[in-house]
Specification:
With about 375 residues, this protein is of the alpha/beta class. Helices cover about 50% and strands about 10% of the residues.
């Protein structure tokens, strides 16, 4: 049995009994039912994932999956391809935005090199899982072979498992790779059937001419693959149109779900990876929390396809896992509220009587 097969076989539905108990607990806390809004539904989801309620969230980590893209040669990014390894070194030195935000929420940062087109020095926070030094140009041919896509997915699974073995309970998943919003757009366009013009955004901040090149590249790539691509086959989609880091992100989501970890997804490339994961195992989406909604048009389409409503909407478009890391603070807060707030009975406070609307509908309360 392959690593991927093991991960798929281990993904189970959320624990319904734990979620029912969490809902009842939320309604007994010293607040009007439903008054903490989505923090309450988040606490219920956490209970279903972890099979327990009223416990603070354990250690958190950020997994930044990195790789290069052949399509960058078509002028689809405002930055040159050599920025990918340069930024990986910045992550490892602790100087990037994701490092600052990870320190803010007490999470460690791990970088997974799935296909950076440069030799990187050994580092305690670097997982060298390079499948190949960047993808092919998706405009003219497949990004990678199916075997390479499988290897990248399994690298992501293994990384998530290793972090789970260290006790990590929430994994924020981010990306780094010049050209990867173009690849992500191609993946989303192929899976959703949306035209390139409705999926492509400005990514790193390309001008109008650069945006036109991106739209043309995605349109050409999806058109090239359309005749033979099965858009329901996750490995085929990411091999044909995606990136090595997008494949690794798909694996990280699957690995997290198979170990009952929360998988917090970041922006456009990370959510494209989650789309691939959902094609491979639809049930994994129950373990996914959307960190934020980015300004990328394709990101919104991908979130809608997954059925995930993000926690934040801050006009972010950096990647790296920044939006997912910010969301970790809310996830920690939801778990802590459930664990530390008093109940009406424990505090000697009179609870509501009659019927109330808790946001899920009208419920009867003891009086």
């Amino acid at each position: 049995m392959t690593i991927l097969d093991q991960a798929l076989a281990a993904i189970e539905p959320l624990d319904e009994a734990a979620m029912a108990a969490a809902r009842a607990h939320q309604d007994d806390l010293t607040k009007p039912p439903g008054s903490l809004g989505r923090l309450e539904s988040l606490a219920v989801q956490l209970a279903g994932i972890r099979r327990r309620d009223a416990a603070p969230l354990g250690p958190c980590a950020v997994l930044v999956c990195a790789a290069d893209h052949g399509v960058a040669a078509d002028g689809v990014s405002a930055y040159p391809a050599e920025v990918t390894p340069q930024m990986v070194l910045n992550f490892l030195a602790g100087g990037a935005a994701i490092n600052v935000l990870a320190r803010h929420v007490g999470a460690r940062v791990v970088v997974l090199d799935a296909g950076v087109a440069a030799d990187l020095p050994s580092h305690a926070s670097l997982l060298d899982r390079k499948v190949r030094p960047g993808t092919g140009n998706i405009v003219s041919g497949p990004a990678m072979t199916r075997a390479e896509a499988m290897a990248a997915v399994e690298a992501g699974v293994a990384a998530a498992w290793a972090l789970a073995d260290e006790g990590v309970e929430a994994l924020a998943v981010g990306d780094m790779g010049i050209g990867n919003t173009t690849a992500a757009s191609a993946v989303v366009a192929a899976v959703t059937g949306a035209p390139a013009a409705e999926v492509v955004g400005r990514g790193t901040g390309v001008d109008d001419a650069g945006l036109a090149r991106k739209v043309a590249a995605v349109d050409a790539a999806v058109g090239r693959a359309a005749a033979h691509l099965d858009a329901a086959d996750g490995l085929a989609v990411v091999a044909e149109l995606g990136g090595l880091e997008i494949a690794a992100i798909a694996g990280a989501v699957l690995g997290a779900a198979s170990r009952r970890m929360v998988a917090v997804i970041d922006g456009h490339p990370a959510t494209a990876g989650a789309l691939v994961a959902a094609l491979l195992a639809p049930e994994c989406t129950a373990y996914v929390v959307g960190g934020h909604r980015s300004v990328e048009r394709g990101h919104r389409l991908a979130l809608a396809r997954l059925g995930v409503v993000p926690l934040l909407d801050l006009d972010l478009r950096l990647g790296e896992g920044t939006g997912a890391c910010l969301a970790l603070g809310l996830i920690q807060a939801a778990a802590r509220l459930s664990a530390e707030m008093a109940t009406f009975s424990s505090a000697g406070i009179s609870g509501p009587t009659g019927e109330v609307d808790d946001g899920r509908g009208t419920v009867a309360l003891p009086g």
